[in-house]
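Quick start: read one record
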Amino acid sequence: METTRLKRREVREAAEWQQALAQLPDPHVLQSWAWGEVKGRYGWHADHWLWEQDGQPRAAALLLTRRLGPLPLRVAYVPKGPLLDWADGELLEGVLADLEALARQRRALLLKIDPDVRLDGPYAADVVARLERRGWRFSRQQVQFRNTMHVDLTLAENDLLARMKSKWRYNIGLAQRSGVQVRPGGLDDLGLLYQLYHETSLRNHFVIRPESYYRDVWETFIRAGLGHPLIAEVDGEPVAMLFLFRLGRKAWYLYGASRSAHRDKMPNHLLQWEAMRWARAQGCTVYDLWGAPEVMDETDPLWGVYRFKQGFGAEMVRHIGAYDYPAASLFYWLYTVVAPRLLAAMRWLHWRRGGQAGEGGGHDA
């Protein structure tokens, strides 16, 4: 019996979308309905496209588009997608053709994708070759981390501990002996989660968004059943937190924070261990620690984070990274090449003027 051709349609209900994702290989939390809801409140328009064949889901793409100020142009993005069997070249060609057409219809100057296609996978070279033949370009702007760290949760708990470095096992035990307790968080803890995150940003000198944004993300995913906060306490005092995301058989560690107090009791080590135990209990087979160095060198900004994650027995996973489809070639060049250089020059001039005026400068406003 001859199979029907691939058909694309828009999904407008959250339950149907989540059900479809569950039938596709390696669904990513950034392709969830909840993520589209969040981004829709911050200037993006979310469309949910599903490709079916013989009534079965074959591919899916949460397509985000955003207008560039007063210009009649947009940028389009499929975060950590599209979702499909990347070994199926014919399916890939059909999905890419549709996405390219959608980008042109939306008057997008570019369409970006950054799927979790492993760089060392058996079909990575074919995927990249097909993208390049169709005019896609390796992106100058890698929105998400290209590399990450995975922990294999199919192992028994004793085997998970055995794969860790001895110092990490010791620190987990130290936290337990020192009275660190880990409890699940809830909607009532959102303010606390932000306080911990804000304190961490000040101590480690990184910029974060307003509190309202994080509350929105965390609440949306908790209510959708895809988010799970864990909070570490010492004598009832919150000292550290992490926020887990879960979809299908995978869990992600996207947010973590700690206070300076009681850091000698190693609450972060116990938090990660309890996160793995929770994810494993939910049926997850992979724990994604979200983010690893681009260059395996101690000068990379993520080197310290990488060493911490590696201590838990995590494996480095490299992906092909983000690729852009320049739907409007001239505007794409202006947006990705000229505009960043102009912005850098303006920042440099701002810094120079600040320095000459004796304002101490040294950093951008």
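The mean pLDDT is 91.
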